[in-house]
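Subject: Protein record for review, amino acid sequence with backbone structure tokens
Why sent: The fold of this protein is of interest and is recorded here as tokens.
Notation: Tokens come from a learned vocabulary of local backbone shapes, not from coordinates.
Attached in line: The record itself begins immediately under this heading.
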Amino acid sequence: MDRAADGSRRSECAQKTVLLGVTGCIAAYKSAEIVRGLQKAGVRVKVVMTEHACEFIGPTTFRALTREPVAVRLFDEPGDPIHHISLAQEADAMLIAPCTANVLAKLACGIADDLLTTTALALTVPLIIAPAMNVHMYENPATRKNMGVLHTRGTHFIEAGDGYLACGEAGRGRLADVDEIVDRTLRVLGVERDLQGKRVLVTAGPTVEAIDPVRYLTNRSSGKMGYAIAQAAALRGAEVTLVSGPTALDAPRGVRTVAVESAREMLAAAEEAFARCDIAVFAAAVSDMRPKNPASRKLKKGAADAELSTIELVENPDILSTLGNAKTSQVVVGFAAETDDVIENAQVKLSKKNADMIVANDVGGSLGFGTDDNKVWLVSADGVLDVPRLAKSEIADIVLDRAARFIEK
């Protein structure tokens, strides 16, 4: 698939370079995710590692992700005898994530005894630090003092989070969320992201329709695709409203989340946000039908057999059709989960629902509901884009790429 559009849509930040410093911490594996997050925003990433970091993750991983040389030792680059200076000069910002207590202390004292700290000392651009360590190390007065010293010098800190730590203890010290680190870094860079100033509505998850206070009708949707789209839109600068049916997922960071249960509740919440949105993505799996007369008490077997044997159903409102046919300037994206004739059914849905694009997927096999990846087709009046099997987070950006093109038309 041609990914050229992915870079062109972020032309403003295409020239930005972040030097990512990785230190010897168990959270070093998350640095690879940070690389991908920055790259999605169009940022060029170069990596410098401490020798201890190589005990947790190898330079080969970062070479593969960045397609750039990975710097580890002071004299690894024979063609550049002053490598720490050239690295510092090449960067628009340096991000150290994760940063250990040891490296924090060296930076605060101006100690430069390896390539990473020597490069940091030569910086004339912003330095961003995301620390990670044991809770007692993080709360130690020496560490807090070192952070204070660096803060007064203008260093940007992304504070560690609370939670279960690799050492077995719980408390503050775990590396901040990758999305938060990426977002803060982009803000320090002053990047105007491609959906900045846009409003995006996303529906996600299943709806549930009560039979009685205990039983209900629903479907297999996990909400993962819709949540991935909401998070991706927020990271690209959009103001996002996520209308979600019941899921086991954490609310995406930086997203306004409205929890609903039934299809009618979802329609009401979506209508409110739809009037002022630029892009509406209807990824929820909405129940087509609902019980006509849900019982106010539990229908007990033996006592309510007649009511349980025949449950009269009525049609739910069609949210995509209702709002698709009410659109003015909004870009409307729908989803089609099919078990056969996937593209043909999506093309019918595109016209019938007055959508700009339908994301179609085959849920008859091992993909679709509940998985972390998927294989989809993007169907629009422009044709059909065959998207290979990818992580849902990757598909989310591709969907938003295509949706943004409709705004430009």
